[in-house]
Design a protein that fits this description.
By secondary structure, the protein is α/β, with parallel strands linked by helices. The chain is 51% helix and 12% strand. It has an eight-stranded mixed beta sheet with strand order 3-2-1-4-5-6-7-8, with helices on both faces. Helix 6 links the parallel strand 7 and strand 8. Helix 8 runs antiparallel to helix 9. It is elongated.
């Protein structure tokens, strides 16, 4: 049975495909219809990637391995855009989009898709290049860390390559990931946990901000529906303003903070010792520690 999460992901992706009116695929053109991409795992992020590839014109060259494919994925199969669970054979590109805790249990399945020339691209948090290489028996491994705004083409994806990876590998990886939004890096593996704690985890921080803003409004007497709508639209608008401005976040904050005004009164609480700035340092530290723990658990 298809899970509610898978259905929601499919609806979200399908709804937002039309928003990608001017895709920036760049090096994706390096790939041809003769190249086969195998996507192992088709949850939210895996499906978002497949959607971008289909829009880029690579439909028909995508294999999806998923025990319970969503309605969206089965719809692509009916249209001839993808093949679902074909007989395993070495892929040109293998994208691993399963949870890191699942990786150990599917290694033997994954090996069937890996040949001497397969490019292996992992979006699993914490699973190192060395672990990928050792367990899959291939030196052609790359790590990437996308985030969920990739579902609407507004994501940030971090890439991490082996030091000896050629320019052609980086160009191909960037092309594969650009349908999700910006591609940043390459990062070293020492840097990747920190960058992941910012952009990989970051959407949850933004959602939490809207959540607690609404809760504060409710606590002070606003109707719940109105409080949630105001908080959501305010966070959306602030993000859009920042996207369109050359100024950094600190300057934008100062620009909307009148001296001795109501915004300043609120910010004095939020930015006090032990408040948001220091809490975020602690939060990022916790995310980094968990990323490093996952690396050890999956070795």
């Amino acid at each position: 049975m298809t899970s509610v999460t898978e259905v929601d992901a499919g609806v979200t992706i399908a709804r937002n495909l039309s928003a990608w009116t001017q895709p920036r695929f760049g090096a994706l053109e390096l790939m041809t219809r003769q190249n086969r991409i195998t996507l192992f795992g088709a949850g939210r992020m895996g499906s978002a990637m497949a959607a971008g590839w289909i829009k880029a014109g690579l439909g028909g060259g995508i294999d999806i391995v998923a025990p319970r494919p969503s309605d969206l994925v089965t719809g692509w199969a009916r249209e001839g855009q993808v093949r679902i669970n074909p007989v395993a054979s070495p892929a040109d590109v293998l994208l691993i989009a399963v949870k890191p805790q699942v990786f150990g249990g599917v290694v033997e399945q994954l090996k069937a898709w890996v040949g001497p020339n397969t490019l292996v691209l992992s979006v699993m948090a914490g699973v190192s290049l060395a672990t990928l290489e050792a367990k899959l028996g291939s030196p052609n491994v790359v790590r990437a860390m996308p985030n969920t705004p990739g579902l609407v083409g507004k994501g940030v994806t971090l890439i991490c390559l082996k030091p000896d990876a050629g320019d052609g590998v980086e160009a191909q990886v960037r092309g594969l990931l650009t349908p999700l939004g910006a591609v940043e890096g390459p990062f070293t593996e020492a840097e990747l946990p920190v960058a992941t704690a910012l952009s990989g985890c970051g959407p949850a921080y933004g959602f939490l901000l809207a959540e607690v803003m609404a809760a504060a409004g409710i606590a002070h007497g606003l109707d719940a529906e109105m409080a949630n709508r105001l908080a959501r639209k305010t966070v959306e608008g602030a993000g859009a303003l920042m996207e369109g401005s050359p100024e950094d976040a600190a300057t934008l904050r100062k620009n909307v903070t009148s001296p001795n005004g109501v915004t300043q009164a609120a910010l004095e609480v939020l930015m006090a010792d032990g408040a948001i700035p220091s809490i975020f340092v602690e939060a990022v530290a916790a995310a980094i520690a968990r990323d490093q723990a996952l690396a050890k658990e999956t070795e």
